[in-house]
Amino acid sequence: MFPLNGITFDVLNGEYLGIMGASGSGKTTLLNCIATVIKPTSGQILLSGANISSFDGTKLAEYRGNKIGYLFQDFALLDNLTGKENIILPLSIHNIDIVTAEKKLKDIADFLGITDVLSKFPSQMSGGQKQRVAAARSLISDPDIILADEPTGALDTKSARLLMQLYLYSGAAHLEQSYPLLIAMAVIVVLVMVIYGVAVARTANREIGKLNYKPNS
Asked: Is the whole-model pTM more than 0.85?
């Protein structure tokens, strides 16, 4: 089975690319390849001309830690860490000082309305709360590339709108006044998102052709 056979596309700085397709068509597999969770069996994934599939050691750690933020479809929160600890984990791994980490955490948590769950463990959170905590973690390191796998699936309408606003319009003046640390991701960020539903799809700058792989064919 080769769900991504023949996939070729470019993504430009500042672009929001939507990926649509039937269940099992390879959308999450594509994001996992870009995130280096899965290594492609053939082909290349190029970042500024460098093949990320060949990264190892320090180069791979730098890419995973600073270049990408990944919002997993199943959240991938660590059960033994609180919401706060899950969010700042990427900063802790890369030895970012606690003052900077706390400031970044406050900005994002305030905006997403999750300050009341920062001391809770994932088992004590609702699905929507887990999704917002996972979203905050994907943004905390100011990544150049954001990968989001159905990021609004577990959210109510208001929370979904806030999250999309944070992803798409973080450079807007009204956000800059209230949440200055969020502006680090503005303009240059590439957003690659698996999307479900027409309303979210309409927010994309561009969609790649719908993935048509069928696992049973």
From this structure: no
